[in-house]
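Students often ask why we bother encoding 3D structure as a string. The short answer is that it lets us treat folding as translation between two languages. Here is a chain of 165 residues written in the first language.
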Amino acid sequence: MKNFKLNCLFILLLALFLSSCGTRKYTAKSNTKAAKAADAMANLKNKGLYRFITDWTGVKYRLGGLDKSGIDCSGFALLLEKNIYGFTLPRRSKDQAEAVKKRSKSNLEEGDLIFFSFGGNEVDHVGVYLNNDFFVHASTTRGVVVDDLNLPVYQNAIVKTGTLK
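And here it is in the second language, the structure alphabet:
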């Protein structure tokens, strides 16, 4: 009888545990930055691009870096364009800006480049456009990340957008 009661108690506790796990929802609110960035990644046409970005996400920023121990923005754009699209870019973001064909911000396509100037009039940062106003870049403070192009810090700093296609 004792074993029967213990078995019943165990089954009851197991049922409660399993039902409580099943009722939890771990979905992000669709209006959060993280959810929107995840949607941009999920909507990429080029799955190789998706894999490349997820493989590099979180790699820290290092000026002049060109590997997983640290990378800068122009190095990241250079490797992405070469590995995903087969395009060759100059090493510096300023030179990269001169190598692209200008394209309006409203007509950007997946893989196009976005150039910024945070320290004056010259290009000093580059990112790669994804979709829905999101782009990927090597941030000096957060490493390789997907960001919202509509943030004022980026809107106020865009100096050129272009394509290698």
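Translate back mentally: The first helix runs from residue 2 to 23. Keep this in mind for the problem set.
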